[in-house]
Amino acid sequence: MAQLINGKQIASDIRQELKEEVSQLQQQGIRPGLMVIFVGNNPASQSYIRGKVRAATEVGIASEVLRMGEDITETQLLDRIEELNQDEAVHGILVQLPLPKHIDELKVIEAISPEKDVDGFTPINVGKMMTGLNCYLPCTPFGIMQLLERSNVTIDGKHVVVIGRSNIVGKPVSILLQRANATVTMCHSRTPDLATFTRQADIIVSAVGRVGLITADHIKEDAVVIDVAMNRNEEGKLVGDVLFDEVFDKASAITPVPGGVGPMTIAMLMHNTIEAAKRASEDSVE
């Protein structure tokens, strides 16, 4: 029977640590500030934003949601981001994706100052991550690494199979795992005979978005399983890529969905925002 990796509890512990850190910063006259840009009215995005604002309030970060209509032009959005880049009270800028189709998401992400890119998505921060330089790490991969570390899962020398090749999860988490001395195999939705690879894994990270992708037959005894995906099954229930009930009895540790990786993503966003405030303060002293 597997150990349940309780991301909800671990994220709560991290937020408490961050709350204490923000309290110390406030004594120095520093108040971390996060600006969330929300374009349109996507219901799922609204839910995610509520969670981020709630977490920010809990740890003491000054957060604000800048709401823009669906009809805003790309130029108007880029101009607003540039204004925020220059605003010293804003330490972190997050643009909630997806954006309306008439706006180029890559262009918008590139417009965010790397010093305020608390999502870790700008090419400069991605490049620094690739080369092992100090940067803001993408929040979900960062959260996965924290889950493993705080659950006492050994990464050094282990074989990890990452399923999914997105720029948000699959690619960056493979880099972070390699930096932690894991041997990483990258698979994806088009990999033939996926089980051939996953049965060799000490740790599996699945981020494809396909219900029932990983069954008990896909893993070896005592593997660690990190389920990143969030899907709706036929009954409308929120589930991941992994058939949790049958894999639970075979794995040594596993994340649930919900309550696994999701809460960690928001916790690491808070971490990055606080780090940005600290760096801005140090730069102003210099």
Outline the biggest β-sheet: 6 strands, parallel
The proportion of strand residues reads 15-25%
**Mean pLDDT across all amino acids:** 96
Q: Mind telling me which CATH architecture of the largest domain this is? A: 3-Layer(aba) Sandwich
The percentage helix is 40-55%
The CATH homologous superfamily name of the largest domain equals NAD(P)-binding Rossmann-like Domain
Low-confidence segments, given as residue ranges, are: none
Integer-rounded radius of gyration: 19 Å
Question: What is the total tally of β strands?
Answer: 11
Distance between the termini: 54 Å
Strand order, largest beta sheet: 1-11-8-7-5-6
Report the principal-axis shape: globular
Overall domain count: 2
Please count the helical segments: 10
Structural class: alpha/beta
> Element order, helices and strands?
EHEHEHEHHHEHEHEEEEHEH
Name of the CATH first level of the largest domain: Alpha Beta
CATH domain topology of the largest domain:
Rossmann fold
Any descriptors?
globular; 3-stranded parallel sheet; Bifunctional protein FolD; Rossmann fold; 10 helices; alpha/beta; one-carbon metabolism; 286 residues; THF_DH/CycHdrlase_CS; THF_DH/CycHdrlase_NAD-bd_dom
Descriptive notes:
- Keywords: Amino-acid biosynthesis, Histidine biosynthesis, Hydrolase, Methionine biosynthesis, Multifunctional enzyme, NADP, One-carbon metabolism, Oxidoreductase, Purine biosynthesis.
- It catalyses: (6R)-5,10-methenyltetrahydrofolate + H2O = (6R)-10-formyltetrahydrofolate + H(+); (6R)-5,10-methylene-5,6,7,8-tetrahydrofolate + NADP(+) = (6R)-5,10-methenyltetrahydrofolate + NADPH.
- Residues 138-280 form the Tetrahydrofolate dehydrogenase/cyclohydrolase NAD(P)-binding domain.
- With 286 residues, this protein is α/β, with parallel strands linked by helices.
- It has two domains: 29-113, Leucine Dehydrogenase, chain A, domain 1 (Rossmann fold, 3-Layer(aba) Sandwich); 139-262, Rossmann fold (3-Layer(aba) Sandwich).
- The protein has ten helices and eleven strands.
- It has helices at residues 7-27, 43-59, 74-85, 105-111, 123-130, 139-150, 170-179, 194-198, 244-248, 261-285; strands at residues 3-4, 33-39, 62-68, 92-95, 159-163, 183-187, 203-206, 224-227, 231-232, 238-239, 253-254.
- The strands form three sheets. Strands 1-11-8-7-5-6 form a six-stranded parallel beta sheet. A three-stranded parallel beta sheet has the order 3-2-4, sandwiched between helices. A two-stranded antiparallel sheet has the order 9-10.
- α2 (43-59) links the parallel β2 (33-39) and β3 (62-68).
- α6 (139-150) packs across α10 (261-285).
- It is globular and about 55 Å long.
- The mean pLDDT is 96.
